[in-house]
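Human: My hope is that you can spare some time for a protein that puzzles me. I am handing you a single protein, as its sequence and its fold in token form. Could you go through the record with me and say what the backbone is doing? Take your time, and here it is.
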Amino acid sequence: MSGTEKAKAQAEQAKGKAKEMTGRALGNERMTAEGHADQAKGNARQAKEDVKDTLRHR
């Protein structure tokens, strides 16, 4: 996985986790949902890069 893309995926996951936890602590359902969505985007980006790596190493 490209180092830059890996870092972006991890940063997006961490940002989403922080936003989700803040939303839960404040009782803000919208912020919680946005955090969950950010995590999902980070997971999707990481999965895409994993597939690219797998295909590249065949």
Notes: The first helix runs from residue 3 to 26.
